[in-house]
Amino acid sequence: MILEQLTLLNYKNVAEAELRLSPNVNCFIGANGMGKTNVLDAIYFLSFGKSATALTDSNCVRHEADFFMLQGQYLSPDGTRDAVSCALKRGQRKRLRRNDKDYKRLSEHVGAIPLVMLSPSDEQLVTGGSEERRKFMDSVIAQTSPRYLEALIRYGKTLQQRNALLKQEGPLDEGLFDVLESLMDADATVIYAARSEFVEAFRPIFSALYARLCNAAAEAVDITYESHADRGPLGPLLREGRVREQIVGHTLHGPHKDNLDLLMNGHSVRREASQGQTKTFFIAMKLAQFLYLKNHGERRTPLLLLD
Question: What are the domain boundaries of the chain?
Fold first, then answer.
């Protein structure tokens, strides 16, 4: 994909900008606080329907304004052009459009404009908790599999309902738990299969890239997938854990507890790697994400943003 033109209006600290971009490499140069990262974030927003950094959409509206608008003109490898726009007015629902047609659901847009963003905060992939690595898996797979994204969204909603029941006082409503756990089991099966397939395809891409960045002979790296499914279907685990989970007030088993174990010479990178090795590891992961997206899904070369 090639981003040919980008328009920003009242986006974060950018009052107004219209950029015509090269089909090759584009560099944004300026003093601190000029809005370079915010331009990259605007491009990210047009791919995912949300900011990479802001907690809420309203935080993206410039302080002196009550709305923002973004628009991107894209060129596909087959020569077709796409126009994607997003607008938000404070207190109202954001509107995401592609070729002048509104999306019924924002999730329908994910993957249409594949994108990889590499920023200093990505170090959390290695040093952060397991939720950072789950988000990484989700962001990659969701861009290639609408079925995965739908299952992930459904699972999250059902998980919230089950957690709410666990917090209620009194005896458990076994019938309602049965229904929710059946739904969670079905979606967890889809999620586990997609994550397993992703890791199997991603590992050799990552290992080859890491070897090109450093001394492969001295540093043997690997990525393994840890899941509840290693112990069997989710349904029985949830049923067996109801009483204990009512005590703690949340669900202890499921895809929301999965992890990617990052290894170097057989040891956890998170605990053993130097600062330099940590940086090399997460950079290799993000570049491997780029190559994975390029060769999976609809095989569109993704946009690559370097902050």
Answer: 2-113, 121-298
282 neighbors 237 (Cβ within 8 angstroms): no
| pTM of the predicted model as reported, rounded to 2 decimal places | 0.90
Q: Which tokens sit at 65?
A: 């304004």
> What is the spatial distance between Cα 168 and Cα 84, in angstroms, rounded to a whole number?
44
DSSP 162-229: HHHHHHS-SS--HHHHHHHHHHHHHHHHHHHHHHHHHHHHHHHHHHHHHHHHS-TTT--EEEEEE-GG
Distance separating alpha carbons of residues 227 and 42, to the nearest angstrom: 34
With residue 24 as reference, give the H or E element that holds it.
Answer: none
pLDDT in tens, 22-52: 998 999 998 988 899 999 999 999 999 999 9
Question: Could you read off the pLDDT of 53-90 as tens digits, one per residue?
Answer: 999 999 999 999 999 999 999 998 888 999 999 999 99
Sequence length of the chain is: 307
CA 75, 79, 83, 84 dihedral sign is negative
The residues, any chain, with a CB within 8 Å of residue 79's CB and separated by 6 or more, are none
Where does 2-113 sit in CATH, by number?
3.40.50.300
Q: Which of 55, 49, 89 is nearest to 69 (CA)?
A: 89
How many DSSP H helices and E strands does the chain contain? 9, 11
Q: Looking up tokens 């946009």, which residue turns up?
A: 303
Residue 114: CB partners within 8 Å, gap ≥ 6? Answer: 1, 47, 143, 293, 297, 300, 301, 302, 303
CA neighbor of 49 nearest in space, from 37, 35, 34, 60:
60
121-298: CATH topology is: Glutathione S-transferase Yfyf (Class Pi); Chain A, domain 2 (1.20.1050)
Torsion angles phi and psi, residue 5, rounded to 5: -150, 140
